[in-house]
Amino acid sequence: MRVLLSCVNSLVSLVGYDTEAAKAFWYCPGNMLRACGACYDGHDLLLASDEFVTRITPQGVRQHKLPGPHTNLAHSVHHIGGMIGVVDTGNSRILIQPPDSDGAVFTLDPLEGWPDRPMDAIHLNDFMPWGEGVIASCFHYHPFGHYKTKGYDWHGGGHGLILGMHRAHGMTVSKVLASGLNCPHSLVEHEGAVYCCSSSRGEFLKYAPQPSGLLYESARWKITGDHFVRGALHDGERWLLGGSSVRRLKDQSPMSLYLLDEATGKVERQTVAAAGEIYDVLPWDDAIMRTLVPVINALPSNDWDENEYPKPMGLPDF
Predict the structure, then answer these.
(1) What's the CATH architecture for 2-297?
(2) What pTM did the predictor assign?
(3) Where are the domains of the chain?
(4) What CA–CA distances, in Å, run from 206 to 28, 42, 108, 186, 187?
(5) Which residues contact 308 (CB under 8 A, 6 or more apart)?
(6) Considering only CA atoms, which of 305, 316, 200 is closest in space to residue 247?
(7) DSSP string of 220-251?
(8) Distance (Å, rounded) from C-alpha 257 to C-alpha 240?
(9) How do residues 259-294 score in pLDDT, each as one tens digit?
(10) Quick one: DSSP state of residue 50?
(11) Which SUPFAM superfamilies match (predicted)?
(12) Looking at the predicted structure, is the pLDDT value of residue 156 above 70?
């Protein structure tokens, strides 16, 4: 299967990868385009990163800036009904807007009503449509407990949550659906079950929805002890899971794609020849990407940010 990998804090921002050939066939350097979350929208590709949502169209590239007050640290972007939702991690909310507009129609905000919240209070990072609203993942259960606080066991402390959220009577209604997770990411619904990555533990989890609306953990697979795990796509036979290097390229270990057979638990590792962090795994849509690759390839290159990438590094030889 050919897939599109969206990468953050990486030498490459987008990678076209073929699992049958076990190699990449195209990439966009990280100094030409920044990415984190990604999704298709019609004939376009949407990327969320930093304070922007970037729309890549056959006619060109345009961006819109997300509102504050804090730096947005935008993570996932997905369809929700006929709208586009982007996770505004810095402000701990999901902004919902029509695809042809830059302004948010409404927000889903689990901390609605909390005054003077800090930036990135709970590290809300991903969501997916669910029932009348969404389910979303976050790293921390306490609105003022920051996941970067000194002494915080973000790796295995079990502080993460899956939240259910919907709008009612002009406000966000939130409910904890699952707790005790470690850095949950990459929510996916498949055959009625909810799956997510425990990124810091290198695990992949399966949840069974209960009549009460809560999620019950029904299976867990250890994918790797070497990488963070983020990004999940089912190809009809196996799960394709993104494996990331140590954060912000503190070593040169390459990214990996892990292929999980759910029935047997067998995991196959394929190496992606670049250091960085896979965030999303999308199917490669030839009809869309055929028109967008020339647009992306024509983008200008920027100087590398030496503060973000302190080591001298060359681009991968795919």
Answers:
(1) 6 Propeller (2.120)
(2) 0.92
(3) 2-297
(4) 33, 30, 24, 12, 10
(5) 9, 248
(6) 200
(7) EEE--SSSEEEEEEE-SSSEEEEEEPSGGGSS
(8) 7
(9) 999 999 999 999 997 878 999 999 999 999 999 999
(10) B
(11) NHL repeat
(12) yes
